[in-house]
Design a protein that fits this description.
heterodimer; A: alpha+beta; OB fold (Dihydrolipoamide Acetyltransferase, E2P); three-stranded antiparallel sheet; 20% helix; B: alpha+beta; Elongation Factor Tu (Ef-tu), domain 3; six-stranded mixed sheet; 11 helices
């Protein structure tokens, strides 16, 4: 597990978000990778694509199933992590670090504040 | 009507659908409910919120103790994968990928106790069963087993099953979990009065599969290792009286062991105490059988698919082809003579994107070409693989197809099955 950071937020769909200025780095949580199991294929959005909050924009495929990954906030895709396309197992081994999916230039950085904080996400996991 | 014992009150509601691993497994509701209990379940209102409680196998708590993640499958709580720890974790960490590769390298233990087991007994039982299946059952030697199909008058497949002969008047059958009620109802309605159907409710069925399975069995039950492929025997394993067949659903050498319910845990403990063995979940069971090109009922076979379309004409016994006197036989003969409009093929997607069941297949000219019926990732071939039905003109090795996955067109090629060569003990 990555260290708990005040700047890290979460969605109820098990994405994590780190904010640096108006650029948000997005990935799936350690809980999510564990639930999905061994990943064999990752699809990432195209650069410059405009995404809305909650829009399906990436796919994580395990041996058994394909799962959508949603954009946690509205913005524009400015960077994607090609390394995890080459080797999807990185998402299993370091979901909340090297296994990040994409970077998003947020339309409104204020929206970040509305996401779940670590305590909120931990509480969500308690209910699952 | 033949007499039936043993199924009362424990048959799952088969009329619903369950989602497992993102794939919809269809259970075709069929046949009249035999018993009041199942009648009630089948006629519950569609929006009745009362969940049907899951059935359990004799290994339910054993799975949970061994780190299984349990999922609903065909009305049963079943392990989809394990998070293995301790001695077992040192052999295999668990998870679909590792469990799959362990089975191909060493030996895996599968709980398949959800499947239906029954004795069919009575004078002339083999001839009687031949009225329902295209296989040569009369010609099956004692202590041998055969893969066959229950077919319907329209030439479709009601189920695929294993039939073993213990004696001229005694057969042992293993049917799919999702088809138990349909099959046993069909037996009861179609077999003559003198045939007794003894359903073995609550009995365990374990499969030990992999290249080292024979070494494990040699240590525990030396006589069982003498079984040829599709041989069947009554064998003591660790003091437990079992029926053992040399067969399986992975493409590897292996054994399926029918064991009394109360002894199933002890047998599982004995098997995983062997250094080659770890428990394997349904996830790897599915990827192993897909690599081996083996059909899954409900995905690749159903009541609207004929054995000829499915490439299973080899199940029709040579003698049975003289008279074609089994359900749908004349239709199958016509299909063999004149061809079918579609055929089951292996499909290799060009890239790394898996195409799952129900993926639409189109030809290069954009016309509809067929549908994927099983698809995913093959850990041993390390790439996506699939099976499906394509129209006749594209059902040849090397034909180019396009798979429509999430709106994108992915090129793919028709390839021979299996994806991984069978390594049965011949």
């Amino acid at each position: 597990m990555a260290s708990k950071s005040a700047d890290k937020r979460f969605t109820k769909d098990h994405e994590w978000v780190l904010l640096d200025g108006d650029i948000a780095t997005v990935g799936i949580t350690d809980y999510a990778q564990e639930q999905l199991g061994d990943l064999v294929h990752i699809e990432l959005p195209e650069l410059e694509r405009a995404v809305t909050e909650g829009e399906a924009c990436a796919v994580a495929e395990s041996v058994k199933a394909a799962s959508d990954v949603y954009s946690p906030l509205a913005g524009k895709i400015v960077e994607i992590n090609e390394t995890i396309v080459e080797d999807p197992s990185i998402v299993n081994s370091d979901a909340e670090g090297e296994g990040w999916f994409f970077r998003l230039e947020l339309d409104d950085p204020e929206t970040f504040e509305a996401l779940l904080d670590q305590d909120g996400y931990d509480e969500l996991l308690e209910t699952l | 009507m033949a007499r039936t014992d043993g199924v009362r009150g424990k048959t799952p509601n088969l009329s619903g659908t369950t989602t497992e691993g993102g794939q919809l497994f269809r259970h075709v509701a069929g046949g009249e409910a035999l018993y009041a209990e199942t009648f009630v379940a089948q006629n519950a209102l569609p929006d009745d919120p009362t969940p049907v409680p899951l059935l359990t196998t004799p290994l339910d708590s054993w799975h949970r103790r061994h780190g299984a993640r349990m999922v609903p499958f065909a009305g049963y709580a079943m392990p989809v994968l394990y998070d293995l720890t301790g001695d077992l974790g040192a052999r295999c960490r668990g998870g679909v990928m590792a469990e799959h590769l362990h089975t191909r390298k060493a030996a895996g233990l599968f709980d398949v106790s959800h499947m239906g087991q029954a004795f069919l007994s009575g004078t002339g039982v083999a001839d009687a069963l031949e009225h329902l299946v295209p296989g040569d059952i009369a010609g099956l030697k004692p202590w041998r087993q055969r893969y066959t199909l229950l077919t319907n008058e329209a030439g479709g497949i009601i189920d695929d099953l294993m039939v073993a002969k213990l004696a001229d008047d005694r057969l042992f059958v293993v049917v799919n979990a999702s088809r138990k009620e349909v099959d046993f109802t069909h037996f009861a309605a179609s077999l003559p009065d003198g045939i007794h159907i003894g359903v073995l409710e609550g009995r365990g069925l374990l499969a030990l599969q992999g290249p080292q399975a024979a070494a494990v069995i040699a240590r525990l039950a030396p006589e069982a290792v003498k079984l040829p492929f599709m041989g069947f025997g009554a064998v003591d394993i660790g003091g437990i009286g079992c029926f053992v067949s040399r067969s399986g659903y992975t493409g590897e050498d292996g054994f399926e062991i029918s064991v009394p319910g109360s002894d199933t845990e002890a047998l599982a403990d004995l098997l995983v105490a062997q250094p080659e063995v770890v428990p394997i979940g349904l996830g790897a069971r599915d990827s192993l059988r897909l690599e081996a090109g083996l059909c899954l009922y409900g995905n690749d076979l159903d009541e609207l698919t004929s054995p000829v379309e499915a490439g299973l004409t080899w199940v029709i016994g040579k003698r049975r082809k003289l008279s074609w006197d089994f359900p749908g036989g004349l239709l199958m003969r016509d299909q063999l003579d004149n061809g079918t409009t579609r055929h089951r093929v292996g499909i290799l997607p060009d890239g790394r994107t898996p195409a799952r069941a129900q993926t639409t297949i189109v030809a290069d000219d954009g016309t509809e070409a067929g549908i994927v019926t099983s698809g995913g990732f093959g850990p041993s071939v390390n790439q996506p693989i699939a099976m499906g039905y394509v129209r006749k003109d594209l059902a040849h090795d090397g034909a180019r197809l396009n798979l429509i996955v999430r709106g994108k067109t992915l090129p793919a090629t028709v390839v021979p099955l299996p994806f991984v060569p069978h390594r049965y003990h011949r």
